[in-house]
Automatic annotation (TrEMBL):
<dbReference type="GO" id="GO:0003677">
    <property type="term" value="F:DNA binding"/>
</dbReference>
<dbReference type="InterPro" id="IPR000792">
    <property type="entry name" value="Tscrpt_reg_LuxR_C"/>
</dbReference>
<dbReference type="InterPro" id="IPR036388">
    <property type="entry name" value="WH-like_DNA-bd_sf"/>
</dbReference>
<protein>
    <submittedName>
        <fullName>Regulatory protein, luxR family</fullName>
    </submittedName>
</protein>
<dbReference type="GO" id="GO:0006355">
    <property type="term" value="P:regulation of DNA-templated transcription"/>
</dbReference>
<dbReference type="InterPro" id="IPR016032">
    <property type="entry name" value="Sig_transdc_resp-reg_C-effctor"/>
</dbReference>
<feature type="domain" description="HTH luxR-type">
    <location>
        <begin position="46"/>
        <end position="111"/>
    </location>
</feature>
<dbReference type="Pfam" id="PF00196">
    <property type="entry name" value="GerE"/>
</dbReference>
Length: 116
């Protein structure tokens, strides 16, 4: 483990009250890639997270997963950009991602039929 990794770990660890919470968080949320974090979730766990999205969030999720912009997603759904942005924010929160890149990295293998 390099110096930067040790510093990152120390800073991350200081956010948590107990070592147990830190270990749980790093186990679930996994490693960092150059594009964002890679979640340590099985296909079943990913499908469960996606199933927790509202129907409209799911529609938005699959459009975004297909590589479309938020503006294009709004157009396809027949909604305003700000509404699409609200859905995107909810999706990111529920799926524990912070960007479109993280969404695609972690959920590209999830199908609309829900079979991972």
């Amino acid at each position: 483990m390099g110096l930067m990794d040790k510093i990152k770990k120390m800073l991350l660890k200081s956010k948590f009250e107990t070592a147990e919470l830190y270990e749980k968080e790093t186990t679930i949320f996994g490693s960092q890639t150059s594009y964002g974090k890679k979640l340590n979730l099985s296909p079943d766990e990913k499908s469960k997270l996606v199933k927790n999205l509202t129907p409209r969030e799911k529609e938005t999720f699959f459009i975004l997963l297909g590589g479309y912009s938020l503006k294009e997603a709004a157009k396809q759904l027949g909604i305003g950009y700000s509404t699409a942005n609200t859905y995107q924010t909810a999706i990111y929160k529920k799926l524990h991602v912070n960007s479109r890149a993280e969404l695609i990295i972690n959920f590209r293998d999830v199908s609309e039929t829900g079979d991972g």
